[in-house]
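Lab notebook: predicted structure, single chain.

Context: the supervisor wants predicted structures on file for every construct in the current expression panel, including those that have not yet been purified. This is the next one on the list. No modifications to the sequence; it matches the entry in the shared construct table.
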Amino acid sequence: MAFVIKADVAEPYAKTSMFAAAATMSGGRRIAEGDTVYVFASETEGGQGLVARGVVTAAEAIPKMPGIARQTPCVSVTIKRTALAKRPLGRSDLKPFKDWKDGRPETELNFKFYRQATNKIGGISDEAAAFLGTLF
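Prediction complete. Output recorded below exactly as produced.
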């Protein structure tokens, strides 16, 4: 399975990036060493959208805090960059894809990333991964 992460990316061109205690959705908590990850620099943090593809070199689930009923699962991941995006893909590019039932990879990405502005890690379909692969 491939994953996407939208986060505050301090150094978009770094060969290795670490993301601590990232919130997860859509199966993101199952991210593991060796998985492919597409890295989006969060536009709410000053980023430009899709910046890189990489492979997970380390992943660690963050234990839930006792006594709190509802908690978003979080993981810390380290990603080794394998490619830089040829062009950014961000909110303005994905915003027109709003028909949640059209089956398009762009719509899946818009739904998972921009329905809520929070930074997160999420699993994506093979079709979405193939689409993102064309941008490298």
